[in-house]
Amino acid sequence: xxxxxxxxxIAALRKQLEANDLSPVETEGLDRQDTKAQVERxxxxxxxxxxxLSVVDNRTGKKYEIKISDQGTIAxxxxxxxxxxxxxVGLRTYxxxxxxxxxxxxxxxxxxxxxxxxxxxxxxxxxxAEKSNFSEVAFLIMYGHLPSAEELASWDxxxxxxxxxxxxxxxxxxxxxxxxxxxxxxLTAINALSTCHPEQNPALAGQDxxxxxxxxxxxxxxxxxxxxxxxxxxxxxxxxxxxxxPNQRLGYAENFLYMLDANLQSSYRPNPKLARxxxxxxxxxxxxxxxxxxxxxxxxxxxxVDVYTAISGAIGALYGPLHGGANEAVLGMLQRxxxxxxxxxxxxxxKNRKEKLFGFGHRVYKSYDPRATxxxxxxxxxxxxxxxxxxxxxxxxxxxxxxxxxFFIKRKLxxxxxxxxxxxxxxxxxxxxxxxxxxxxxxxxGYLAHWRESLTDPDVKIARPQQDYRGVWLRxxxxxxxxxxxATKDDETLSSVSPSNAYKRRVSGVNWQ
Length: 513
Known about the structure:
This protein is mostly helical. The protein has 2 domains: 1-41 and 98-461, Orthogonal Bundle (Citrate Synthase, domain 1); 50-83, no CATH class. It contains 20 helices and 5 strands. The chain has helices spanning 2-22, 125-131, 134-143, 149-161, 167-174, 182-195, 202-205, 213-239, 252-261, 272-285, 292-301, 307-318, 326-337, 343-351, 370-386, 390-403, 406-410, 418-427, 435-455, 501-507, and strands at residues 51-56, 63-68, 109-112, 117-120, 123-124. Strands 3-4-5 form a 3-stranded antiparallel beta sheet. The longest helix is centred in the middle third of the chain and has 27 residues, at 213-239. The relative contact order is 0.12. This is Citrate synthase. Residues 17-56 are annotated as: Disordered. GO terms for molecular function: acyltransferase activity, acyl groups converted into alkyl on transfer.
């Protein structure tokens, strides 16, 4: 694996050098389509606005008036008032996956899935990707406004001053197998980082430790500053090459590429166009309201756990193939298709449920994902430098056919941000197993913004969802001799689990007890 990673990365670097020789480098950023903010400056009434909901319980004939907030929500606890005998417990909502449940109030990002809108603190994602950079966007997401020149300088300086990795974290990573998955390595590093700063842990320093803005900000700059370095360290754990410490004279995205590729040569500088590409990718992935991993971060934070554990738990959720691993799945799908001639047969396989279509559809977006529109342009810009990937033709043709087919149109299946991002990461020389890490680096900013917001939310309670119990109601305990096998299915008892290889090796020796 280490040879493959190194070879792929070196090939990408050669492409970068060739591009520098052939054409002047533009440092002002990649060309973008002109974008404008929405004409409307006031938000339409969410869910129709405030009012009341009249509910008649046909079981009892009772009528209830439930208040609707100006945000178009009702308090879930209002349903507890609706009872009809039985065990006396009031109504509850059953909402697997929290499809229609608002678990918090937030000012950080806004999505309109029907219109294909994504905004960070009110700014359209298109404008930020075109005009801003990740460092500035991270400040915006965290503190609610674009920084002044002085604020941005202080922010950048703070991030750089907290970008170095403690020796204990490096040692923890060094103890891992060389073939450990990149995400597993990142999780190890963040958990180790938590132990390096006991003064910020509420379990050790008291529950009020995060009450001060200074303590909050210290953890924020530590995590945002260190996550690119942690990612680079994880990368080189697998590549076998030397990890280069951060360069405090470089920007956020440029510094990340420097740590990957400098090989301890302080004079090395990444291709500015590719650094700008990374900047845009980081902006697109920085925040996306209450997705699975962000919800996990808030859930964990509600218990009062330290921020590093909350962020680690969120990244662990991102590790799941249904969340952060989607772009890797898209790349695998395109590789299996292989050529545009095979797309019609693949499409038929999708319709017959013999194939899975990755990179289309989204829990929230029922139109074109605005990030995918930007990502598609980024693909073209990157391939001008690295050379065109033959799979791009497959992706473009697959999108064209799917978007003109009634089967997908009726189901509102449009390309999402993952559809093209895997091609970009591959062009940059990253192995597929590293794609989710590229997602995690910027998303840490979003996690931290939600963590910070939750600390001052008066409505926050420890997360403790209800359940709909369907199990056995009551039975008496029997001693072991009197018991009979009660399992009615194979999945209700332990399956045959083979001993570990370590156990076999140990017991094959002498006097192993």
